[in-house]
Amino acid sequence: MSDFTYIKPDEEKYFNAIIKVLEGKNKTLSDKLKKGKCTISESSSFSQRRWNGMMTTIYLYVPFDIIGQINEEEKKMLLEVCELVMPKEVGFDVTDIEISPLLDSVTANKTLLDDLNQITQNESYAIIQSLPENIKANGQKMSEVYSYLYCIENTLRIFIEKVGKENHGQEYFNTFSISGSVRRKIDQRKQEEAKNQWICVRGDSDLFYLDFKELGDIIINNWNDFKTFFPDQAFVTSKINELARCRNLVAHNSMITESERDLLRLYYNQFLSQINGTRLE
Question: Are 53 and 111 part of one and the same domain?
Fold first, then answer.
């Protein structure tokens, strides 16, 4: 028998407690998170830290331009503080954190370079100092594109999860219509991670094991849940296919054109305008 309650603490109060503790440890980091929020996602797996303690992921949502400013040391501190603040009696052991963009913080008027300038200043430029100038320039451009694609893909995951939970509850993924091939891919990718322990686990949700096209398939195959957000299915499939093509180019270290970069930004803003809290009548 366990004395744990397994009842989530109030997420707003929990997040405020995180900020309060961080103020005494790293004031700069606490300031970065002050305009954010969090959700607590418990899993059905034991953490193996305490008897009957459950693995738990904290999803931290921060302004878009803050994501690139949080380094690995700060992420480690965040994980420690999230575990420290979690009430011990609830039985949730914080084993992972995920940092994602706060949708309300993304504006449609910024250019790709405006949005991602801080990321490239902090990370990309320092990495490529010894390369030829043209490779440096191309590498910096592609690092921006990758970061943008990363945010688009995770925005879709957040959106699908939000709609799924609203319509079907915590076990929404099991109620979705998902093809056998996609479910097999999820299992295969989990098995690969289990074999390679040095690879960071993607997240508690199966959505983190899906790519652009598979996320698009979930929206189309469960159209009744998502149709109020989009004018039609073609709106989704055409943009998902183009985003997936750009993602494949980036994954294979190929350059994409300026027009493709502009299209990437346009599609993201179009998706945001559709899913950011406004349903179609």
Answer: no
